[in-house]
Amino acid sequence: MKTSIPDLPSGQSSLWLKSPPTESYPTLEQDVDCDAVIIGGGITGLSIAYALKQTGLKVVVLEKNTIGSGTTGGTTGKVTTQHGIIYDKITKQFGTAKAQTYATASQRAFDAMATLITDNRIACGWQRADNYVYTANPKKVKQFEDEVAAATALGLPASLESNLALPFETVAAVKFTGQAMIDAYKYTKALATLVDGGGSHVFENSNATGIHEGRPCTVKAGGHKVTAKNIIVATKVPAAPLVGRMTYAAMEFPLTSYLVAGTYEGNLQGMYISPDKQHYSLLPIQTEQGQMLLVGGQGHITGLKRPKPQQQKLAGYAQKWFGVEQIQYRWKAMDYVAYDNLPLIGKLYPWSEHTYFAGGLKKWGLNLSMVAAQVITELIHDTEPAAAKLFSPYRASAPASIPLSIVRGFKH
Ligand SMILES: Cc1cc2nc3c(=O)[nH]c(=O)nc-3n(C[C@H](O)[C@H](O)[C@H](O)COP(=O)(O)OP(=O)(O)OC[C@H]3O[C@@H](n4cnc5c(N)ncnc54)[C@H](O)[C@@H]3O)c2cc1C
Predict the structure, then answer these.
(1) Please, are residues 200 and 7 in contact by the beta-carbon 8 Å criterion?
(2) Fewest CB atoms within 10 A around its CB: which of 39, 47, 167, 180?
(3) Is the pLDDT of residue 57 over 90?
(4) Mind listing the pLDDT tens digit for each residue in 252-266?
């Protein structure tokens, strides 16, 4: 077993963003009217825009850089209703009814995404795979057993496993069958092509600098304005005004994680993640360059850590356990996590009538972006699903969990 560390490429670049964007969209250069303006052109903004357009609304997407180039372009690629070891915790903390709401919303979103990809023949590498959360720590076995019991009771496809195909010893794993892997960048770009046209528009290099809620609402970008009945902020944290940033700082915090990807010649199947300190997130995936292994982890609250030492640890792990001799890509990405570990989807402020927010997707946004799309579409069409109450940014538990999170050291 080798223990040397493969060389890292000199610069940071995501595997997914390796090819230049195929389509590009214009900058906003005139005033535009629509039913809903969505700020942010990542998977969340585009999922919401697509869902609203499907209900007959004319939508406008404003993206300050290019579509999918934010966290979406730096993601791993697992689409799953298994967001770590959560269902037992949610059941105990919020009760069975709310845990059921979470599980149902997540499963419904997963199914909707599968249908959307099939119906529109989106070439985004969507492939079914089982997802495993594993541990090598005997003290966690009981927690994993409880998780399987809770997830199964909520109707999710969970089972307890002990013999995994991993090259190191594990003592327990929670397996969710029939999940999927995806190239989220290609998927998001495909959504943009479906959104643009028929009176709806996608704009790139269009930085939204001010929002005003009224009848109508307006969003300013580059000296022009979009007038709309509704505004949806899908930028992970409200970009403007300052009061928005400050309000959401009391509800969610940024978490940076690292990824490396290298050519992989082994035959590991499935998708893996572990809460153990010495283990990482693993995704063996077919790409245009052959089979690659993605290894992700070393997450911390966004701050001043240098990426290279973190990525060297991931590269060493890839080499030691999976024989990955060359790392072709290394990158980092950041997502927001709400203090009570539920997503933040709903009205931007308690007094908002036509302005919505979707964020706090806690590193599971490839599934939760579709939850956001479904919840916000229902809210705009004047129905309030149970998920809207549970995920409302103004639920009592959102800011109330801050002291608890600090005591726990923001473990995620
Ligand atoms: C390391 C890592 C690995 C992950 N792996 C997974 C995974 O395997 N499975 C999973 O489900 N989730 C995963 N996630 C989470 C998932 O990638 C994110 O939740 C999701 O990509 C967030 O998408 P988004 O659209 O909300 O944000 P982004 O993709 O960041 O999109 C927001 C967009 O808003 C734009 N913007 C910001 N301000 C403005 C403005 N003023 N005007 C106009 N536009 C603006 C930005 O340019 C950006 O493009 C991972 C996250 C990380 C960090």
Answers:
(1) no
(2) 167
(3) yes
(4) 899 999 999 999 999
> Would you call 402 helix, strand, or coil by DSSP?
helix
282-315 burial, b if ≥16 CB within 10 A, otherwise e? bbbbebeeeebbbbbbbbeeeeeeeeeebbbbbb
If one residue of 363, 368, 371, 391 were mutated to test the ligand 1 pocket, choosing by the most ligand atoms within 8 A of its CB, it would be: 363
Ligand 1 centroid, distance to 73 Cα (angstroms) = 7
pTM: 0.95
**What is the Cα–Cα distance from 124 to 132, expressed in whole angstroms?**
22
Q: Which atom belonging to ligand 1 lies closest to the Cα atom of 334?
A: 53
CA angle (266 as vertex; 261, 271 as ends), nearest 5: 60
- What percentage of the chain exceeds 70 in pLDDT? 94
Assign 7 a pLDDT band (cuts: 50, 70, 90): confident
Closest residue by Cα to atom 36, ligand 1, is 40
> What is the rounded average pLDDT for all residues in the chain?
93
Instruction: Convert the pLDDT of each residue in 86-98 to its tens digit.
Output: 999 999 999 999 9
Q: Where does residue 207 rank: exposed (0-12), middle (13-18), buried (19+ CB within 10 A)?
A: middle
Helix, strand, coil % in the chain, rounded to nearest 5: 30, 30, 40
Tell me the CA–centroid distance for residue 363 and ligand 1, in Å: 9
Residue 330 contacts by C-beta under 8 Å, 6 or more apart in sequence?
8, 9, 12, 13, 258, 259, 260, 261, 307, 311, 315
- The closest residue, in CA terms, to atom 31 on ligand 1 is 42
Q: Give dist(CA 140, CA 174) in Å, integer.
A: 11
**DSSP-assigned letter for residue 85:** S
* Cα-to-centroid distance, 343 and ligand 1 (Å): 13
The candidate with the shortest Cα–Cα distance to 260, out of 305, 302, 310, 306, is 310
Nearest protein Cα to ligand 1, atom 16: 365
**Please, what are the domains in the chain?**
32-408 (3.50.50.60)
